[in-house]
From TrEMBL:
<dbReference type="Pfam" id="PF01965">
    <property type="entry name" value="DJ-1_PfpI"/>
</dbReference>
<dbReference type="InterPro" id="IPR002818">
    <property type="entry name" value="DJ-1/PfpI"/>
</dbReference>
<protein>
    <submittedName>
        <fullName>Type 1 glutamine amidotransferase domain-containing protein</fullName>
    </submittedName>
</protein>
<dbReference type="InterPro" id="IPR006286">
    <property type="entry name" value="C56_PfpI-like"/>
</dbReference>
<feature type="domain" description="DJ-1/PfpI">
    <location>
        <begin position="7"/>
        <end position="175"/>
    </location>
</feature>
<dbReference type="InterPro" id="IPR029062">
    <property type="entry name" value="Class_I_gatase-like"/>
</dbReference>
<comment type="similarity">
    <text>Belongs to the peptidase C56 family.</text>
</comment>
<keyword id="KW-0315">Glutamine amidotransferase</keyword>
Length: 180
């Protein structure tokens, strides 16, 4: 019996998602027993990248963000990738899903460039989080406390800096998702 049996986890991603930041957290929560859906800007398959520059695999999408409802999920994962995060932060439906999950007190996990969506959705004010170094000024400008740590947990928000942090990030999200 897994620690996440019966839990439903959404992964919000689009083209340009950093592949390991999509696949490793997804596998960690699946291995713990969660059912996972990939949510994107539409239902077309998304193309992942390696190190933001090398195209990688395509992944099927289960639901468009416009059709996703926070009530359908127990937790949300926001993988990074510069292009992915930049596209998501500009999308009203993506921001709404993230806001609704945070407002409901459900765990949200963001790694690398993913906190851009949190910044754009006005969700970092008064929170402590980490990210890829180039986002830290954005986080501070949005009223957040940006720190340089492997994993930061602030209430229902779990953040990490980059792919090197994936082992700790994956362990933290499984633990935090199980606690809800």
């Amino acid at each position: 019996m897994g620690t996440l049996d019966g839990k439903r986890v959404a992964i919000l991603a689009t083209d340009g998602v950093e592949e390991v930041e999509l696949t490793q957290p997804r596998q960690a929560v699946i291995d713990a027993g969660a059912a996972v859906e990939i949510v994107s800007l539409d239902t077309a398959a998304i193309r992942s990248m390696n190190s933001d520059i090398a195209p990688s695999a395509a992944y099927p999408v289960d639901r468009a963000a416009a059709d996703a409802n926070a009530a359908d999920y127990d937790a949300l994962i926001l993988p990074g990738g510069t292009v992915n995060a930049d596209r998501l932060r500009l999308d009203d439906d993506a921001r709404k899903l993230v806001s609704d999950m945070m407002s409901a007190g459900k765990p949200v996990a963001a790694i690398c460039h993913a906190p851009w969506t949190l910044v754009e959705a006005d969700l970092v004010k008064g929170r402590t989080l980490t990210s890829f170094p180039s986002l830290r000024t954005d986080i501070r400008n949005a009223g957040g406390n940006a720190v340089d740590q492997e994993v930061v947990i602030d209430g229902n928000l779990v953040t990490s800096r980059d792919p090197d942090d994936l082992p700790a990030f994956c362990a933290a999200i499984v633990r935090e998702f199980a606690a809800t």
